[in-house]
Amino acid sequence: MSTVALTDLERVGASFTADTMLVVRDKTRAAIHEIAAQCHPGMVEEDAVEIAKGILKAAGMRRGWHDVYVRFGSNTTKTFGAPSDPGIVLGTDDIFLIDIGPVWEKWEGDGGDTFVTGTDPEMARCARDAKALFHEVRAKWRDEKLTGEALYLFADRRATELGWKLNLDLSGHRISDFPHAAIYEGPLAEVPFNPSPLLWVLEIHIRHPDKAYGAFFEDMLLDDVFFETAEA
């Protein structure tokens, strides 16, 4: 990529403001937890998706820049854009993930998280490790100013060390006033520079090497202060 092209990857639209993007982030993360609170054992995944859409609409979502994903059990191994296997019911010792990309007025939100039901220790560890790995990678971005490429090389190595497989098809992207795709549609994992805060989301999707489940965590690349009061 030329210097001009690299600069162009971080341009923003006329409506972009840092304060607004942070408000949008807060709304997105609040919606994720509201959706999670409505998911319970015995529910069919398709019903959870409809509930999620209703919550987002009530919160003021004009549209989604990508589909609403609520994945139960074995569907948590699916990559972005892949259809879920139908009829999956959330179990009493189970795992589920949420990935939403709402457009709030003119601005894109994007975020994801993983939750567990019951007491399965490995599923709980999977959910914890997805979030912990997100923060490990974010620390490399913050402290060592790594490129997008280097961030995901590190993430892949650490996931393996933790006993998981990293899904590199979900490897971060731009975020902006809608639509970011007009600026850059490619993955963060191919960006050969240190990405700026507020303009990119980091995605971590890990899978069990042998069993049919995984976990996901996604949020903006931001400094520590923006996570100090975040949900545990």
Describe this structure in words.
By secondary structure, the protein is of the alpha+beta class. It has a single domain (3-222), classed as Alpha-Beta Complex (Creatine Amidinohydrolase), CATH 3.90.230.10. It has five helices and ten strands. The chain has helices spanning 3-8, 18-37, 45-58, 121-144, 148-161; strands spanning 61-64, 69-72, 94-100, 102-104, 107-108, 111-117, 165-166, 173-174, 200-207, 214-220. Strands 7, 8, 9 and 10 form a four-stranded antiparallel sheet that branches. It has a three-stranded antiparallel sheet with strand order 1-4-5. Strands 2-3-6 form a three-stranded antiparallel sheet, with helices on both faces. α2 crosses α3 and α4 (121-144) packs antiparallel against α5. The longest helix is centred in the middle third of the chain and has 24 residues, at 121-144. The protein starts with a helix and ends in a 12-residue tail after the last strand.
Tell me the Rg in angstroms.
17 Å
Number of helices: 5
List the domain count as a whole number. 1
Structural class by secondary-structure content: alpha+beta
Q: Give a short account of the largest sheet.
A: 4 strands, antiparallel
Give the tags.
alpha+beta, Creatine Amidinohydrolase, four-stranded antiparallel sheet, 5 helices, 10 strands, 34% helix
Question: What's this model, at a glance?
Answer:
This protein has 232 residues and is α+β, with helices and mostly antiparallel strands. Helices cover 34% and strands 20% of the residues. It has helices spanning 3-8, 18-37, 45-58, 121-144, 148-161, and strands spanning 61-64, 69-72, 94-100, 102-104, 107-108, 111-117, 165-166, 173-174, 200-207, 214-220.
